[in-house]
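The methods section describes the discrete structure representation at length, but only in general terms. Since the whole study asks how a given chain folds, the encoding of that fold should be made plain. An entry of this sort, consisting of the sequence and the corresponding backbone structure tokens, reads as follows:

. . .
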Amino acid sequence: MQISTGIINSRNPYIKKNGQISGYGLSFVINYLPIDTLSRPAKQILSVVSGVASSTSEYKIYKTKRNLSMECGTSIATVRRNLDKAVSAGILTKTYVFDPHAGQQATEYKFTNSFLNTALDCVQAIKEFTRKDIRKIITRITEIFQCKFKPQTQPIPPDQNEPASPDHFDRQREVKAKDLEEKKKSIPVKPEQISVNVKSSATTLAERAKTKAFDHAESENIKHAERSVFKEKLKKLAKRQAFLSSRDSSLATNRNTGVSASYRDHVDREAEKVRQDAESRFTAAKENGFNPLDTVRKIMNKHFGHRKSV
């Protein structure tokens, strides 16, 4: 099966990561099946059994009826009777398993493909509904099962199930009851054609091993696909982070460059102002008779004049 990104990222509790219906989804659909499809006790038993079947991709039940009765909290006869009802409804298939040395083994039950496909259509249709929309959910499931679920059962001929309609077979109205009974007795009764599926325990074990290997390989493929998707997300995040970091650093560099240039201009202006003030004061002092050379000479004589006298 091809694993798609949509299936991996799907958080629908009714569907597995491989696209098949989950045990929760299968139990949910079974609980809301139409009453004409399956009785309420049978739905309760089947909803518990569905969790066991959904653990594999084949949706098979390998447990004994004793173990199933312990899980369901009912008797073995109740489990057997309701599983047979599910088989009659076309929801399950029944296969007897025999071992050449140990004799009969646990009967193998399997959900039919028709039922699984219909149940998958149901969970796809109700995934947008909430628990508050329970009436809409029941109506939707009923509509889908009435339209799509076609159990493979052998129909009984109408003349064995229903009486003839009153507007047909006018001659039969004139036949006496005694003659009619004799006529029925004279018709040979054909034995009912019952197809029984039987397999050996070796075949069953080989099928289980094949299913287990397939499920393991599919699980590894899903994990590999999840890791690939996770790596792609990390790469995108790393590229985005690198882009944002480079953009922030360039903005900071431009901002710092602008601040240093304005600061240098400010310092230059202050220095020029101080220089102009000094020149103006010096010019004013010279106009007032200030002679810098005489001032320096007086300072030198004051501090170093006694050395000459010595």
The chain has eleven helices and five strands.
